[in-house]
Amino acid sequence: MIVFQTNHQKLYNYIIHQFLKKEIFNDDTDVGDMIEFLVPKYLYREQYSKCVKTFEELFFWTKDEFYHSMSAFHELVLYYFIIYMADLRNDMDRFDYIYLNKKSRSLIRACVKTP
After folding, report:
1. Angle at 70 between CA 36 and CA 16, to 5 degrees
2. CB 53: neighbour CB atoms within 10 A?
3. Contact 103, 6 (CB under 8 A)
4. Per the CB 3.0–4.6 Å rule, which of 25, 40, 48, 61 could disulfide with 68?
C-alpha cells in the first residue's frame, strides 16, 4: 500500500492498481511500449530500467498491505500515469464502466459518504 496523505488510502491504492492492471500489466501490453508512451523521452532514454522497475513497484505496492513511501521518481512516474488516465477518461464515454469495477464504485461511494 502506498502511503498517501489522506484517509482514502485504500481507495487510491485499489484504483491505481486496477488502472495499472488494465493499461500496463495485462497480457496484450508490453511494459516497455507503454513506458515509451507515458513518460517523457529523456526519462525513457536515460532511465528505461528504472522506469520499468518503478512501474512494477507501483503495481505491486498498490496491491499489498505493507506501507511503502514513494521516492520522487515514483511520484513523477505516477503523475505521468495519472495524467494519461485523466486524458483517457476525457476521451472515452464509457471509461467508468470499463475501468471501475464493482469494488471501485463501492469504495468511492463509501469515501463520498465519509466527511
Report:
1. 65
2. 14
3. no
4. 61
